Input
Amino acid sequence: MVSAGAKVRHRLRRVAAALENAQVPYAVMDDHAVALRVSRVDESAVRNTRDVDVMVRRSDFDAVKSALALSGFVHRHVAGMEVFLEGPNAKPREGVHVIFANEKVREHDALPNPDVDDSERLGNFASSHWTRWSGSS
Output
């Protein structure tokens, strides 16, 4: 269990470093964004998740693909989502899921996602105040 959590945090750090090195604006989303905030108050309340959700602008997606490929990630389009895997045999549920800024994830969502500029720096990451659930009906 500890090893699994460490692998996910390592994946998150690799993604953030790759995007920052390529100067691609991004924001960590969903479970990791919540965990970053919760950890500031009570580290024992943080829960692990298997995937990493990162929000980028669609106009930056080619730069995202290049940056993550340089870091060893493999791009796949799976079940309507853009996903980056840590190798060709990795499981999409353990991958890096891309969420596009200024777009709705699902058609029935009440609001589109915010822009990546609507994020704040938490530790080593740009993190959104927003989760996919906060914009859903």
